[in-house]
């Protein structure tokens, strides 16, 4: 009997285990599964994202991104980050039926046009909520502040903002918060004095904060990461004594806030700090000695301040991956680079300082260096060979120094940007540029380079090719017209000769072509009409011999045209065929052999000249592409002087038709071009009276009608031109 009872107990135990395992495999409650499926049906899935493979035949607790309580079967975690969900997020979504959720991640989806529903505030068990980068818009509901158990809150979107006092209410009520991330949200508030003492992470980057940052933030004993960058109305005053967060703080990012004054010595206590970014903070003075104790620093950004002192002590930061010191007043030499092996360094930027001497030749260990920018200093001598042997380098900028010698051949093919302009480099262009299959920017202008431009330069991925102001000779390679991604082509101020036989490909992206200051001759190829996006065409100071190119009217975006000092000849006919782009702002046809009457239809079409710009106070520049690397300079003759503009304002509206053989009367329609700053019609054969309509040119600064056959009195209305600084009417009748 006892034996039978034992067998019965064993079978009962086995059946219980099977029953328990069966219940575990079907944990999901039917209402939970239905709520999830209804939620999914509200959206379509981006084809580039991993879709949700949810279906009724599988227990919902096994679905992608779903986690359940093993005892109750309630859904407690839902991670739908980067699932490509697209559609309207309904304010009464079935998602809110999952009332036991503790973690909810909806980041990196597309709920464009949706508001954050107040019902999120009813998910009272939530400890983690991530709604970042999902294109929610509108106001963040104050109901979020009811989530009293919330520990992590992440909302990142420039489409969102807080109600008045909403941010303060949220921080005041959510006393358990550990992590707060509100990148790009419009908070437009001060930071309140009362907030969770448990905070480890506070990210409020670019949130329109203002006022004074409470010093209490620096004394949060558990604080590990603080990022308040790009809040220009926020004033930060660093504690002068030891911070309570000194032992825990690993990241401090305050780029673009107001932290006037010097870096306090209290920074020296931040011994756990790995990442320090205090660029653009109006800081001044020298680096305090205690700062050199922060030997664990991996990323240091002190750029765009007014800091000064010798550069030599930075070798103490031997674990650096990123050292950014641009736009300061640091001086001294770069010898510190040779003191240690910089095996972890990825980027080094000490541009726009006052460094002197040579770049040391015995630097080692920089096999991971990707960005090297030492531009705009006073460095001299040759470029050392180790720079040409960096296997990971993609950006090299040594421009605006006093470097000399030849450019060596690069040993690796990782380069994306090379800028060596404004130095004293000589010799030929290295052949190794042919091997740089990823090179997009090549700027070697304003040096003493010589030799021919080889067709090997025609890298098909180049976007900027700037070889201007060198001693290059020979002809222009025909293959330049086949570089389909090229935006800027600058070969100006060399000794290039021959004709312009380039056939520009259809659909090219060229915005700037500068061939001025060479010895080019012959006629212009009509393939220029394939450059539909061209804004600057500068062919001045050559020996081109042609009539006025009527195909220029096929360039709808052209804003600057310079044909100065060539051998162009003949009339510019008064017809629609010869009309230029309505966007023209600068036209210089001076010192040629153009003849006939001034073309009225040409002036009629200059729509951009009929507007006085800069009324809104903002400055815009013509063809201002890639301005970090390339400067679209232009020489103009105005007020009797030859001036070089490093960049051309859209308001620099200039007409220079001087030193030709134009005749007849000055068209009165010129008075309609009220945006004109400079008008030069001198040294022609113009006759008749000065049109009274010129008094409408209220911003005109220079008017030169000298050396013509103009007669009659000077119109009294010209006295109203209060901006006029130069008026030359000499040598007329």
UniProtKB/TrEMBL annotation:
SMART domains: LRR_TYP (SM00369). The keyword Flavoprotein does not apply. Belongs to the RLP family. Residues 30-69 form the Leucine-rich repeat-containing N-terminal plant-type domain. It comes from the Eukaryota. It is found in: Cell membrane. It is a single-pass type I membrane protein. Keywords: Cell membrane, Glycoprotein, Leucine-rich repeat, Membrane, Repeat, Signal, Transmembrane, Transmembrane helix. Residues 1-21 form the signal peptide. One of its GO terms (cellular component) is plasma membrane. This is Leucine-rich repeat-containing N-terminal plant-type domain-containing protein. GO terms for biological process: defense response to fungus. Its main location: membrane.
